[in-house]
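Protocol step 4 of 6: structure prediction from sequence.
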Amino acid sequence: MPKQVDYEDRRSRIAQAVCRLIARSGMEAVSLRDVAAEAGVSMGAVQRCFRTKDEMLLFALEDISDRIGDRARARIEASGTPESALTLLDRTLSALALLEPEDRTEAQVWGAFVAQAAVSEELAAVLRDTYAKLHDLLAWLLDYGRTTGELRPDLDTRSQARLLLALTEGLTSQVLVGHESPEDARELLRDYAQNLRP
């Protein structure tokens, strides 16, 4: 009887191999052959999952986008009973900025995909969708802060969510290149959030 192949698991393993290669050597290091070797599968197995390199890169970006959004939402849900809106906002911003040491690989990969999206409409479309979802999450948190009275009642939450998303994205890059430390970046995010209080 032929062996059953879990294609979703294989696609996920291949996406993780793509991300490891990008983190180690940049986007230009990604080839079907190198990804197959990194994932521990044959080149034919990669080609059965993805017809082209672009299709493989698109899947890898969707995978990392989902993980970043899921992690931010998980930090909110893990709190169980509702916490201070500012505490939830702090945790979420830290997750989105990829400031933890274990987030460094994802931050490197995210930066490579953002750069590549400047010349790839398919990647840019995934990023636009991801940014829209993250913006909505931040706007929800800010609205929650207004209802708890922790944030100014006149706060334009949609506009502030855009600014916070841009701030986290910029800090990710600055931490990656060593211009800011993760601790200083966290402090900047906290300071900004404190300025939204009444």
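Step 5 (inspection) to follow. Residues 121-148 form the longest helix (28 residues).
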